[in-house]
Inverse folding.
């Protein structure tokens, strides 16, 4: 192997959602022309970026303890006469940039999610001074990011929409990610074609409120997510389309119909409800009732009866009574989920719910979370076991957990490990599900 002395090692640690994973890939793209190459470990790195998530508790503490750990790598690099640029990016940087700079004097750069296209200039500047950039410009960072490169592999992520104007009372996203913005249809199609040319067979469209997507089409008209998906489905070589995360308020018939009409659109929908109680939904500013959510699910299941549903839940929101919590358990029983995330409510400074009366005691939150998770786990296991004996298409995207196995995802977004030769990597094959565990399936080639 030849060593390029101009190559610099870039280590990015990513927390949080798929938007952050996507952003980390794009940061690597932006830094590539400066000679930075991504590496998998911090040892000897010329630049370290912590791409942070602010959504749940102790986010800032976690960043400080990681910084503390990584500092040893900076010191050893320094002892060898080198230098590691240390950067904190993402939502914690956006929210607490000045505090980080004050508490961690060895951090060179702090920058928010709307500024990644300015990274090369920030890196230049950081060689002489410390840089804080937490601007939230109205102009899109996407206009300045380079074309998607080919480092995403068989399953790729693509941001189509960013930001949120919904202001759920528990959530920091509207403050850290800024107002809602949709990219144009053309930009997304062109980027998808580049990804497919580089080997992607599946694209997951990302957005904090992905179904609020409203991008301008070539015809000058506004296109919603259903129309965008229909246009992407025309791309030869693209086999599977997924999207994350949807909001019940933005659910439109066009997207529901897309689940009936577009075979490339996978039968999986992540549609967080957060709580099954109308009182709590109101206090959360979700602006819909539990029955409206039930109606949406009924329409979705009519369009695509086998669809797998997933959700996020928060327990112990301020003022949540035993009855409110029972309502949450009831909606879980009514919908039956294939998968779900559930969290204890955690007050985020600066959000309205943090100052609400009726904060719930930690022990109550713990107990409710446990009861909810027991029910959700039962449903997840039942869903996975219900797949045993079925034949479904699976795209192999990496090595499996054992030798001789490949890993892929079922249409319902379950992880599956299949005995298959390595040359099947990167393509779709019919797989017979042999066994269903709590978190994954195993299967065998059915062709
Ligand atoms: N406390 C607990 N969970 C939260 N989430 C967002 N903010 C909070 C908070 N303050 C959860 C929501 C959201 C998911 C991404 O994180 O369920 O849908
Ligand atoms: Fe946060 Fe609510 Fe916006 Fe989702 S919809 S990002 S939970 S404010």
């Amino acid at each position: 192997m030849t060593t390029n002395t101009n190559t610099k090692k870039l280590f990015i640690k990513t927390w949080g959602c798929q938007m952050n994973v996507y952003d980390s890939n794009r940061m690597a793209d932006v830094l590539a022309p400066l000679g930075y190459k991504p590496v998998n470990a911090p040892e000897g790195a010329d630049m370290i970026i912590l791409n942070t998530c602010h959504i749940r508790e102790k986010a800032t503490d976690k960043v400080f303890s990681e910084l503390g750990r990584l500092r040893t790598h900076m010191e050893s690099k320094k002892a060898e006469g080198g230098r590691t640029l240390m950067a904190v990016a993402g939502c914690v940087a956006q929210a607490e940039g000045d505090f980080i700079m004050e508490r961690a004097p060895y951090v060179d750069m702090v920058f928010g999610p709307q500024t990644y296209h300015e990274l090369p200039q920030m890196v230049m500047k950081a060689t002489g001074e410390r840089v804080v950039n937490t601007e939230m410009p109205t102009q899109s960072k996407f206009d300045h990011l380079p074309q998607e490169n080919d480092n995403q592999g068989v399953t790729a992520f693509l941001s189509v929409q960013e930001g949120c104007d919904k202001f759920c009372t528990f959530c920091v996203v509207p403050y850290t990610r800024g107002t809602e913005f949709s990219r144009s249809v053309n930009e997304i199609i062109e980027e998808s074609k580049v990804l497919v040319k580089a080997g992607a067979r599946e694209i997951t469209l990302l957005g904090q409120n992905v179904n609020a997507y409203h991008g301008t089409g070539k015809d000058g008209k506004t296109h919603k997510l259903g129309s965008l998906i229909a246009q992407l489905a025309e791309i030869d070589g693209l086999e599977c389309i997924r999207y994350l995360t949807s909001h019940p308020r933005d659910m439109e018939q066009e997207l529901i119909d897309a689940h009936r009409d577009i075979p490339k659109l996978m039968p999986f929908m992540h549609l967080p409800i957060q709580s099954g109680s109308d009182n709590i939904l109101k206090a959360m500013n979700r602006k819909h009732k539990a029955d409206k959510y039930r109606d949406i699910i009924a329409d979705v299941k009519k369009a695509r009866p086998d669809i797998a549903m997933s959700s996020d839940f928060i327990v112990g929101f301020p003022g949540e009574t035993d009855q409110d919590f029972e309502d949450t358990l009831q909606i879980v029983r009514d919908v039956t989920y294939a998968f779900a995330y559930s969290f204890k409510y955690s007050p985020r400074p600066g959000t309205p719910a943090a100052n609400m009366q009726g904060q719930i005691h930690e022990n109550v939150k713990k107990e409710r979370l446990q009861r909810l998770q027991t029910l959700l786990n039962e449903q997840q296991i039942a869903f996975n076991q219900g797949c045993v004996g079925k034949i479904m298409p699976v795209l192999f995207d990496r090595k499996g957990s054992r030798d001789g196995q490949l890993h892929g995802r079922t249409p319902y977004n379950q992880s599956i490990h299949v005995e298959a030769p390595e040359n099947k990597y990167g393509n779709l094959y019919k797989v017979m599900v042999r066994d269903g565990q709590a978190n994954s399936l195993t299967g065998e080639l059915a062709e």
User: Anything to note?
Assistant: The chain is about 35% helix and 25% strand. Residues 12 and 49 are 5 Å apart (CA to CA).
